Amino acid sequence: MSQLSTDSLFRAADPQTFARALLNLDCVDDLRQEHGQVCATVTHQGLTHRARLSNEEHFTWSCDCPEPPGEAPCLHAVLTGLNFTLDRHRRDRRPRPARSGPYDRPFDHEGLMRRLRTGESAPEDSPLAISLLREVALGRSRELQVLFDEALDVFALPAEERGPAYLRALHAAAETIGQFLVNGQRMNGEDLHATVSGYVEKTIDLIEDPDGAVAAASREIDWIADNTYGPEEEDL
Ligand SMILES: [Zn+2]
Residues with beta carbon < 5 A to ion ligand 1? Predict the structure, then answer.
């Protein structure tokens, strides 16, 4: 019985019977194991029969229907066997309990803001790009828009910190927009791009940019948004 498998049933059964069984899988009740055999009650086309089968040493089957006993099992026996092997397959694939891990964490707005502001990471932090990629993978579009909106608002910082903080936020935003787009989350990428470029347009002239790095980062963001497309989500 332990040898009973979808494959052994397929080999034992007449192909037409096997095909009919596949179309009538829900006819089986009271599926159980008894003395090394698989038994069930099968109700098909208004008639109820009891079938049993085993594949201990070799494939055997019996049924109380009029089908003559022979090599190939009757429809009821095939249905019984198929339901047994499919049940076992489902049991084996029962989902494991959810594992708590990095993907279950709530959005770490404070931690991300701290790193965007200072450029420094605590020893327990994963690299900033990885932290952002994780949020992209979770589709946290709204949270990321709020994050970058705040990260680009550097005007309460001491003058000498504004440029570097603004530039860090721009680079991180560019990466995040690009990740959304290459991840097939085109609308999320475009939403974040709209938020960031809207804010940059209003503020970029207020940032000192002696070596042109801020202007270059801003162009980079527009280039990514214009050139990195996944499939058109709207058309799917
Ligand atoms: Zn039968």
Answer: 49, 63, 65, 67, 74, 76
